[in-house]
Specification:
By secondary structure, the chain is α+β, with helices and mostly antiparallel strands. It has a domain of about 90 residues. Helix content is about 40%, strand content about 25%. It is built from eight helices and 13 strands. Strand 3 and strand 4 form a beta hairpin. Helix 2 packs antiparallel against helix 3 and helix 2 runs antiparallel to helix 4.
Length: about 375
Protein backbone atom coordinates (compact mmCIF):
# COMPACT_ATOMS: atom_id res chain seq x y z
CA UNK A 1 0.00 0.00 0.00
CA UNK A 2 2.89 2.35 0.75
CA UNK A 3 4.38 1.77 -2.71
CA UNK A 4 1.06 2.48 -4.43
CA UNK A 5 0.65 5.65 -2.38
CA UNK A 6 4.17 6.72 -3.31
CA UNK A 7 3.53 6.05 -7.01
CA UNK A 8 0.31 8.05 -6.85
CA UNK A 9 2.08 10.98 -5.23
CA UNK A 10 4.92 10.84 -7.73
CA UNK A 11 2.49 10.70 -10.67
CA UNK A 12 0.93 14.01 -9.61
CA UNK A 13 4.02 15.49 -8.00
CA UNK A 14 2.41 15.54 -4.55
CA UNK A 15 5.49 14.35 -2.70
CA UNK A 16 6.77 15.47 0.72
CA UNK A 17 9.04 18.46 0.44
CA UNK A 18 7.98 19.21 -3.13
CA UNK A 19 7.64 23.03 -3.40
CA UNK A 20 5.09 22.70 -6.20
CA UNK A 21 2.74 20.43 -4.26
CA UNK A 22 1.02 23.07 -2.07
CA UNK A 23 0.30 25.24 -5.11
CA UNK A 24 -1.19 22.28 -7.00
CA UNK A 25 -3.44 21.32 -4.11
CA UNK A 26 -4.58 24.87 -3.34
CA UNK A 27 -5.13 25.90 -6.97
CA UNK A 28 -7.01 22.69 -7.82
CA UNK A 29 -9.23 23.07 -4.76
CA UNK A 30 -9.91 26.72 -5.54
CA UNK A 31 -10.80 25.94 -9.17
CA UNK A 32 -13.15 23.09 -8.20
CA UNK A 33 -14.89 25.16 -5.53
CA UNK A 34 -15.15 28.17 -7.84
CA UNK A 35 -16.53 25.99 -10.67
CA UNK A 36 -19.19 24.48 -8.39
CA UNK A 37 -20.21 27.89 -7.06
CA UNK A 38 -20.39 29.34 -10.56
CA UNK A 39 -22.44 26.40 -11.78
CA UNK A 40 -24.83 26.91 -8.88
CA UNK A 41 -25.15 30.60 -9.70
CA UNK A 42 -25.65 29.75 -13.38
CA UNK A 43 -28.64 27.52 -12.64
CA UNK A 44 -30.06 29.26 -9.58
CA UNK A 45 -28.97 32.90 -9.88
CA UNK A 46 -31.50 35.57 -8.99
CA UNK A 47 -31.58 37.25 -12.41
CA UNK A 48 -30.88 36.21 -15.98
CA UNK A 49 -27.99 38.68 -16.20
CA UNK A 50 -26.41 37.20 -13.08
CA UNK A 51 -26.79 33.66 -14.44
CA UNK A 52 -25.28 34.67 -17.78
CA UNK A 53 -22.33 36.41 -16.10
CA UNK A 54 -21.75 33.32 -13.95
CA UNK A 55 -21.75 31.10 -17.05
CA UNK A 56 -19.19 33.34 -18.77
CA UNK A 57 -16.92 33.34 -15.72
CA UNK A 58 -17.35 29.56 -15.43
CA UNK A 59 -16.12 29.16 -19.01
CA UNK A 60 -13.03 31.29 -18.40
CA UNK A 61 -12.20 29.68 -15.06
CA UNK A 62 -12.54 26.09 -16.27
CA UNK A 63 -11.05 26.85 -19.68
CA UNK A 64 -7.95 28.71 -18.51
CA UNK A 65 -7.15 27.06 -15.18
CA UNK A 66 -5.82 23.79 -16.73
CA UNK A 67 -2.85 25.71 -18.16
CA UNK A 68 -1.24 26.94 -14.90
CA UNK A 69 -2.24 23.76 -13.04
CA UNK A 70 -0.73 21.64 -15.82
CA UNK A 71 2.51 23.62 -15.69
CA UNK A 72 2.62 23.18 -11.92
CA UNK A 73 2.10 19.43 -12.28
CA UNK A 74 4.86 19.30 -14.90
CA UNK A 75 7.29 21.05 -12.59
CA UNK A 76 6.20 18.96 -9.60
CA UNK A 77 6.66 15.68 -11.47
CA UNK A 78 10.14 16.74 -12.53
CA UNK A 79 11.00 17.68 -8.95
CA UNK A 80 9.58 14.39 -7.64
CA UNK A 81 11.67 12.53 -10.19
CA UNK A 82 14.84 14.01 -8.73
CA UNK A 83 13.60 13.34 -5.24
CA UNK A 84 13.46 9.69 -6.28
CA UNK A 85 17.10 9.93 -7.35
CA UNK A 86 18.23 10.82 -3.85
CA UNK A 87 16.07 8.01 -2.47
CA UNK A 88 17.85 5.31 -4.46
CA UNK A 89 16.67 5.63 -8.05
CA UNK A 90 20.10 6.43 -9.45
CA UNK A 91 22.84 4.74 -11.46
CA UNK A 92 25.81 6.36 -9.79
CA UNK A 93 26.35 8.57 -6.77
CA UNK A 94 29.72 10.25 -6.72
CA UNK A 95 31.20 12.41 -3.98
CA UNK A 96 34.07 14.87 -4.19
CA UNK A 97 36.44 16.61 -1.79
CA UNK A 98 35.02 19.33 0.44
CA UNK A 99 36.70 22.10 -1.57
CA UNK A 100 35.02 21.03 -4.83
CA UNK A 101 32.37 23.19 -6.47
CA UNK A 102 29.88 20.32 -6.25
CA UNK A 103 30.50 17.91 -3.42
CA UNK A 104 28.27 15.19 -4.83
CA UNK A 105 26.19 14.30 -7.86
CA UNK A 106 23.50 11.74 -8.70
CA UNK A 107 23.13 10.47 -12.27
CA UNK A 108 20.63 8.12 -13.88
CA UNK A 109 19.04 7.68 -17.29
CA UNK A 110 16.71 10.67 -16.71
CA UNK A 111 19.26 13.29 -15.72
CA UNK A 112 21.49 14.55 -12.96
CA UNK A 113 21.07 16.20 -9.59
CA UNK A 114 23.35 18.22 -7.30
CA UNK A 115 22.08 18.06 -3.69
CA UNK A 116 23.99 21.23 -2.73
CA UNK A 117 22.49 23.08 -5.69
CA UNK A 118 18.84 22.00 -6.03
CA UNK A 119 18.29 24.44 -8.86
CA UNK A 120 21.01 22.77 -10.88
CA UNK A 121 18.95 19.63 -11.38
CA UNK A 122 18.33 18.84 -15.03
CA UNK A 123 17.20 16.22 -17.52
CA UNK A 124 18.63 14.93 -20.75
CA UNK A 125 15.46 16.20 -22.44
CA UNK A 126 15.35 14.94 -26.04
CA UNK A 127 17.88 12.22 -25.41
CA UNK A 128 21.56 11.48 -24.92
CA UNK A 129 23.40 11.79 -28.22
CA UNK A 130 26.93 10.88 -27.25
CA UNK A 131 28.78 9.76 -24.12
CA UNK A 132 32.47 9.12 -23.57
CA UNK A 133 35.23 9.13 -21.01
CA UNK A 134 37.86 11.79 -21.58
CA UNK A 135 41.21 10.71 -20.14
CA UNK A 136 43.00 13.09 -17.82
CA UNK A 137 43.77 13.85 -14.22
CA UNK A 138 41.06 13.45 -13.25
CA UNK A 139 39.22 11.80 -16.13
CA UNK A 140 35.90 13.34 -17.14
CA UNK A 141 32.60 11.83 -18.14
CA UNK A 142 31.25 13.81 -21.11
CA UNK A 143 27.52 13.47 -21.78
CA UNK A 144 26.15 15.26 -24.83
CA UNK A 145 22.35 15.50 -25.04
CA UNK A 146 19.88 17.16 -27.34
CA UNK A 147 17.70 20.08 -26.27
CA UNK A 148 14.88 20.83 -28.70
CA UNK A 149 12.52 23.75 -28.82
CA UNK A 150 9.46 23.32 -31.07
CA UNK A 151 8.27 26.65 -32.43
CA UNK A 152 5.76 25.47 -35.04
CA UNK A 153 4.49 22.24 -36.54
CA UNK A 154 5.23 23.70 -40.01
CA UNK A 155 8.85 24.57 -39.24
CA UNK A 156 11.78 22.32 -38.33
CA UNK A 157 12.68 22.28 -34.62
CA UNK A 158 15.53 24.37 -33.34
CA UNK A 159 18.16 21.91 -32.14
CA UNK A 160 20.57 22.82 -29.37
CA UNK A 161 23.20 20.32 -28.16
CA UNK A 162 24.23 20.65 -24.54
CA UNK A 163 27.10 18.93 -22.81
CA UNK A 164 27.51 17.82 -19.19
CA UNK A 165 31.10 17.35 -18.01
CA UNK A 166 31.35 15.37 -14.77
CA UNK A 167 34.73 14.67 -13.14
CA UNK A 168 35.19 10.96 -12.35
CA UNK A 169 36.26 10.47 -8.74
CA UNK A 170 39.38 8.45 -8.14
CA UNK A 171 38.63 4.74 -8.06
CA UNK A 172 35.32 5.12 -9.94
CA UNK A 173 36.73 4.48 -13.43
CA UNK A 174 35.10 1.06 -13.82
CA UNK A 175 31.80 2.41 -12.54
CA UNK A 176 32.07 5.23 -15.06
CA UNK A 177 32.66 2.72 -17.88
CA UNK A 178 29.56 0.76 -16.84
CA UNK A 179 27.66 4.06 -16.83
CA UNK A 180 28.83 4.75 -20.40
CA UNK A 181 27.64 1.32 -21.51
CA UNK A 182 24.20 1.90 -19.97
CA UNK A 183 23.86 5.27 -21.68
CA UNK A 184 24.83 3.82 -25.05
CA UNK A 185 21.85 1.46 -24.82
CA UNK A 186 19.41 4.37 -24.70
CA UNK A 187 21.00 6.88 -27.06
CA UNK A 188 18.38 9.17 -28.61
CA UNK A 189 15.61 8.17 -26.21
CA UNK A 190 13.68 11.18 -24.94
CA UNK A 191 13.47 11.75 -21.23
CA UNK A 192 10.32 11.24 -19.21
CA UNK A 193 10.22 15.00 -18.71
CA UNK A 194 9.70 15.56 -22.45
CA UNK A 195 7.12 12.78 -22.57
CA UNK A 196 5.35 14.49 -19.66
CA UNK A 197 5.23 17.71 -21.65
CA UNK A 198 3.36 15.99 -24.46
CA UNK A 199 1.05 14.02 -22.18
CA UNK A 200 0.20 16.95 -19.95
CA UNK A 201 -0.15 19.18 -22.99
CA UNK A 202 -2.71 16.82 -24.54
CA UNK A 203 -4.46 16.50 -21.19
CA UNK A 204 -4.66 20.28 -20.80
CA UNK A 205 -6.03 20.60 -24.32
CA UNK A 206 -8.62 17.88 -23.68
CA UNK A 207 -9.73 19.45 -20.39
CA UNK A 208 -10.00 22.87 -22.03
CA UNK A 209 -12.12 21.48 -24.88
CA UNK A 210 -14.40 19.63 -22.46
CA UNK A 211 -14.71 22.72 -20.27
CA UNK A 212 -15.63 24.89 -23.25
CA UNK A 213 -18.21 22.36 -24.47
CA UNK A 214 -19.77 22.14 -21.01
CA UNK A 215 -19.82 25.94 -20.84
CA UNK A 216 -21.58 26.15 -24.20
CA UNK A 217 -24.20 23.62 -23.13
CA UNK A 218 -24.73 25.52 -19.87
CA UNK A 219 -24.82 28.92 -21.57
CA UNK A 220 -27.28 28.10 -24.37
CA UNK A 221 -30.47 28.13 -22.26
CA UNK A 222 -29.24 31.13 -20.28
CA UNK A 223 -28.44 32.97 -23.52
CA UNK A 224 -31.92 32.18 -24.80
CA UNK A 225 -33.48 33.54 -21.60
CA UNK A 226 -31.29 36.63 -21.81
CA UNK A 227 -32.34 37.25 -25.42
CA UNK A 228 -36.00 36.84 -24.49
CA UNK A 229 -35.54 39.29 -21.64
CA UNK A 230 -33.86 41.82 -23.92
CA UNK A 231 -36.67 41.54 -26.47
CA UNK A 232 -39.25 41.93 -23.72
CA UNK A 233 -37.44 45.02 -22.46
CA UNK A 234 -37.26 46.45 -25.97
CA UNK A 235 -40.95 45.75 -26.53
CA UNK A 236 -41.84 47.33 -23.20
CA UNK A 237 -39.69 50.38 -23.98
CA UNK A 238 -41.18 50.70 -27.47
CA UNK A 239 -44.71 50.35 -26.09
CA UNK A 240 -44.07 52.95 -23.41
CA UNK A 241 -42.55 55.31 -25.99
CA UNK A 242 -45.47 54.74 -28.36
CA UNK A 243 -47.97 55.56 -25.62
CA UNK A 244 -46.00 58.63 -24.64
CA UNK A 245 -45.91 59.86 -28.25
CA UNK A 246 -49.63 59.15 -28.67
CA UNK A 247 -50.39 61.09 -25.51
CA UNK A 248 -48.31 64.08 -26.58
CA UNK A 249 -49.70 64.09 -30.12
CA UNK A 250 -53.28 63.86 -28.83
CA UNK A 251 -52.83 67.23 -27.13
CA UNK A 252 -52.51 68.94 -30.54
CA UNK A 253 -55.30 66.97 -32.25
CA UNK A 254 -58.59 68.53 -30.88
CA UNK A 255 -58.31 71.96 -32.60
CA UNK A 256 -57.40 70.23 -35.87
CA UNK A 257 -60.41 67.91 -35.66
CA UNK A 258 -62.65 70.86 -34.84
CA UNK A 259 -61.75 72.55 -38.15
CA UNK A 260 -61.26 69.54 -40.48
CA UNK A 261 -64.01 67.08 -39.56
CA UNK A 262 -66.93 69.44 -40.47
CA UNK A 263 -65.39 69.75 -43.96
CA UNK A 264 -64.83 66.04 -44.65
CA UNK A 265 -68.10 65.38 -46.48
CA UNK A 266 -67.54 68.47 -48.66
CA UNK A 267 -63.95 67.50 -49.42
CA UNK A 268 -64.96 64.00 -50.43
CA UNK A 269 -66.93 65.42 -53.34
CA UNK A 270 -64.03 67.51 -54.59
CA UNK A 271 -61.18 66.38 -56.81
CA UNK A 272 -57.92 65.56 -55.03
CA UNK A 273 -56.23 68.78 -54.06
CA UNK A 274 -54.40 70.96 -51.57
CA UNK A 275 -55.44 73.88 -49.38
CA UNK A 276 -53.34 76.40 -47.54
CA UNK A 277 -53.79 76.69 -43.79
CA UNK A 278 -55.88 79.85 -44.24
CA UNK A 279 -58.07 78.25 -46.92
CA UNK A 280 -58.72 75.32 -44.59
CA UNK A 281 -59.74 77.71 -41.81
CA UNK A 282 -56.65 77.67 -39.58
CA UNK A 283 -55.23 80.78 -37.98
CA UNK A 284 -51.78 82.01 -38.93
CA UNK A 285 -50.37 80.88 -35.58
CA UNK A 286 -51.90 77.38 -35.71
CA UNK A 287 -48.67 75.81 -36.94
CA UNK A 288 -50.37 74.24 -39.98
CA UNK A 289 -48.50 74.45 -43.29
CA UNK A 290 -51.01 72.90 -45.73
CA UNK A 291 -53.89 70.45 -45.99
CA UNK A 292 -53.89 67.66 -48.62
CA UNK A 293 -57.03 65.68 -49.35
CA UNK A 294 -58.15 63.12 -51.88
CA UNK A 295 -58.76 59.47 -52.59
CA UNK A 296 -56.29 56.61 -52.86
CA UNK A 297 -56.55 53.52 -55.10
CA UNK A 298 -57.67 50.88 -55.46
CA UNK A 299 -60.88 51.48 -53.46
CA UNK A 300 -60.93 55.31 -53.48
CA UNK A 301 -60.55 55.55 -49.69
CA UNK A 302 -60.67 59.16 -48.54
CA UNK A 303 -57.78 60.84 -46.75
CA UNK A 304 -56.82 64.20 -45.27
CA UNK A 305 -53.23 65.13 -44.53
CA UNK A 306 -52.75 68.12 -42.21
CA UNK A 307 -49.05 68.94 -42.61
CA UNK A 308 -47.53 71.00 -39.78
CA UNK A 309 -44.66 73.46 -39.95
CA UNK A 310 -42.53 71.32 -37.65
CA UNK A 311 -42.37 67.92 -36.03
CA UNK A 312 -44.61 68.32 -33.00
CA UNK A 313 -42.88 65.71 -30.80
CA UNK A 314 -39.35 66.97 -31.37
CA UNK A 315 -38.21 63.95 -33.41
CA UNK A 316 -35.78 64.42 -36.28
CA UNK A 317 -36.39 61.23 -38.24
CA UNK A 318 -35.58 61.99 -41.90
CA UNK A 319 -35.97 65.71 -41.06
CA UNK A 320 -39.62 65.74 -42.15
CA UNK A 321 -42.40 67.86 -40.60
CA UNK A 322 -45.13 66.40 -38.45
CA UNK A 323 -48.48 65.58 -39.93
CA UNK A 324 -51.95 64.51 -38.79
CA UNK A 325 -53.58 62.03 -41.11
CA UNK A 326 -57.23 61.12 -41.28
CA UNK A 327 -58.12 58.19 -43.51
CA UNK A 328 -60.96 55.81 -44.11
CA UNK A 329 -58.71 53.11 -45.53
CA UNK A 330 -59.33 49.81 -43.78
CA UNK A 331 -57.84 47.20 -46.06
CA UNK A 332 -54.26 48.46 -45.90
CA UNK A 333 -51.92 50.30 -43.62
CA UNK A 334 -53.04 53.87 -43.19
CA UNK A 335 -49.69 55.20 -44.38
CA UNK A 336 -50.39 53.79 -47.84
CA UNK A 337 -53.29 56.17 -48.32
CA UNK A 338 -52.17 59.74 -48.94
CA UNK A 339 -50.84 62.24 -51.45
CA UNK A 340 -48.57 61.06 -54.22
CA UNK A 341 -44.90 60.91 -53.18
CA UNK A 342 -45.71 61.46 -49.49
CA UNK A 343 -45.39 58.81 -46.78
CA UNK A 344 -45.95 58.78 -43.04
CA UNK A 345 -43.10 57.37 -40.95
CA UNK A 346 -42.75 56.51 -37.22
CA UNK A 347 -46.56 56.50 -37.05
CA UNK A 348 -48.71 56.83 -33.95
CA UNK A 349 -52.37 55.79 -33.93
CA UNK A 350 -54.58 58.32 -32.16
CA UNK A 351 -58.38 57.94 -32.35
CA UNK A 352 -61.35 57.79 -34.75
CA UNK A 353 -59.25 57.27 -37.88
CA UNK A 354 -56.66 59.90 -36.98
CA UNK A 355 -52.93 59.21 -36.95
CA UNK A 356 -49.80 61.21 -36.43
CA UNK A 357 -46.34 60.75 -37.95
CA UNK A 358 -43.35 62.32 -39.64
CA UNK A 359 -44.19 63.30 -43.23
CA UNK A 360 -41.46 62.42 -45.73
CA UNK A 361 -41.32 63.13 -49.45
CA UNK A 362 -40.16 60.21 -51.62
CA UNK A 363 -39.38 60.04 -55.32
CA UNK A 364 -41.07 56.74 -56.05
CA UNK A 365 -44.80 56.19 -55.91
CA UNK A 366 -46.15 54.55 -52.80
CA UNK A 367 -49.55 53.52 -53.99
CA UNK A 368 -50.24 50.92 -56.68
CA UNK A 369 -51.16 52.32 -60.08
CA UNK A 370 -53.31 50.67 -62.72
CA UNK A 371 -51.61 50.22 -66.07
CA UNK A 372 -53.46 49.53 -69.30
CA UNK A 373 -52.43 46.30 -71.01
CA UNK A 374 -50.63 46.94 -74.28
CA UNK A 375 -52.26 45.04 -77.19
CA UNK A 376 -49.81 44.28 -80.00
CA UNK A 377 -51.01 45.03 -83.52
CA UNK A 378 -49.96 43.41 -86.79
CA UNK A 379 -48.73 45.75 -89.47
CA UNK A 380 -50.42 45.07 -92.85
CA UNK A 381 -48.46 45.84 -95.97
CA UNK A 382 -50.71 46.92 -98.87
CA UNK A 383 -50.44 44.75 -101.99
CA UNK A 384 -50.44 45.98 -105.52
CA UNK A 385 -53.76 45.57 -107.42
Amino acid sequence: MQTQNSNWRTAFGITPGNPFAPFIIVSTAVVIIAALILLGLTFFGGTVNARYASAIIFMFVTGLSPVPIGLLVLGARNYARFQGITQGEYWVHWTYPADSRNREIYINGEGFYYPQQPRERGTFLSGVQHVEIQPGQPANLNIQYLHRRYYSSWLPPLKIDKQLVVPIPEGKEEEAQLLVNRFKKQLGATSAYVDDQWRIGWMMGGVIIVAVLISIVVMLPVQSQLDDQKWDQRDATATAQYRENAGEASIFLPPIRTIIEPQIERLKALPDGTMTAEEAGFDADSGVRAVHFGHCPPDDSFYVYVVMNREMLGRTYLSGPGGFNYTEATDRRYMDCGPEHWITTVPVQLTDGWYYGVIVYIQSTRTPRRMETMVPTLAITPTAP
